[in-house]
């Protein structure tokens, strides 16, 4: 191939990559995934203790289920806020290091495209709880969160979609074995996030890269 033509082709590829990157939020930190997974595993452990108390008779069955549901909802909210705060802190630190503003048009598109499926899933979860179909809460959370990641991956690092695919697969399997939701929750929101975070850190943030 003509060396000049090859040089022009490389230049065009560089321009295309720059244009693609400019439309994406690229400051997501692998530490965010590791922190979110750690929060999720801690939440799963605490939830398992609540279930043990109920099964062990330490909570009266007549009020136990309502009590357990309320405690789990508060616990879930605390875990979500903790994971969100951790993700923001690590991502903010990385964006400062890269010299990229954290609240640009790419970040807004990413937020909107991930929050929309999550909000829809949240409405469905509330309806399932109202109908006392708690066994389907974990798979529905996994499915909608996975969809949110796949949808949002168009506006950030493309590898995010693989985590989304894995969560959707896990949620689909959990639909057929609803009694094991806590284990699927721990694997999906805990283990997979930690594995993803380590993978992203090694690929994009490891000091020797």
Structure description:
It is elongated, with a radius of gyration of 20 Å. It has one domain (31-204). It has helices spanning 3-22, 30-55, 61-98, 105-130, 137-152, 160-174, 181-205. Helix 2 runs antiparallel to helix 3, helix 5 (137-152) packs antiparallel against helix 6 (160-174) and helix 6 (160-174) packs antiparallel against helix 7 (181-205). The protein has 209 residues and is mainly α.
User: What's the order of the H and E elements?
Assistant: HHHHHHH
Per DSSP, what share of the residues sits in E-state strands of 2 or more residues? under 5%
Q: Largest sheet, if any?
A: none
Task: Give the terminus-to-terminus CA distance.
Answer: 31 Å
> How many structural domains does the protein architecture include?
1
Q: Note the total helix count.
A: 7
Helix/strand structural class:
mainly alpha
Uncertain runs? none
Number of strands: 0
Please outline what is shown here.
Keywords: Membrane, Transmembrane, Transmembrane helix. The chain crosses the membrane at residues 25-48, 68-90, 110-130, 136-153, 160-177, 183-201. By secondary structure, the protein is an all-alpha fold.
Annotation keywords:
209 residues; single chain; mainly alpha; membrane
Topology:
Elements: H1 3-22, H2 30-55, H3 61-98, H4 105-130, H5 137-152, H6 160-174, H7 181-205
């Amino acid at each position: 191939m003509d060396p000049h033509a090859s040089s022009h082709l490389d230049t065009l590829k560089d321009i295309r990559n720059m244009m693609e990157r400019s439309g994406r939020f690229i400051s997501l930190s692998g530490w965010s995934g590791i922190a979110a997974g750690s929060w999720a595993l801690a939440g799963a452990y605490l939830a398992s203790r609540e279930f043990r108390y109920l099964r062990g008779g330490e909570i009266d069955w007549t009020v136990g289920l309502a009590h357990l549901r309320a405690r789990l909802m508060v616990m879930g909210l605390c875990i979500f806020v903790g994971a969100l705060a951790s993700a923001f802190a690590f991502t903010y630190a990385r964006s400062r290091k890269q010299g990229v503003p954290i609240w640009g048009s790419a970040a807004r598109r990413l937020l909107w495209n991930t929050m929309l499926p999550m909000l829809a899933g949240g409405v469905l979860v509330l309806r399932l709880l109202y109908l006392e179909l708690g066994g389907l809460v974990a798979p529905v959370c996994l499915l909608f969160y996975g969809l949110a990641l796949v949808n949002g991956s168009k506006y950030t690092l493309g590898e995010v979609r693989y985590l989304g695919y894995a969560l959707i697969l896990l949620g689909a399997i959990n639909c057929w074995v609803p009694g094991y939701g806590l284990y699927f929750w721990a694997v999906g929101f805990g283990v997979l996030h930690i594995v993803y975070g380590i993978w992203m850190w090694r690929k994009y943030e490891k000091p020797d890269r």
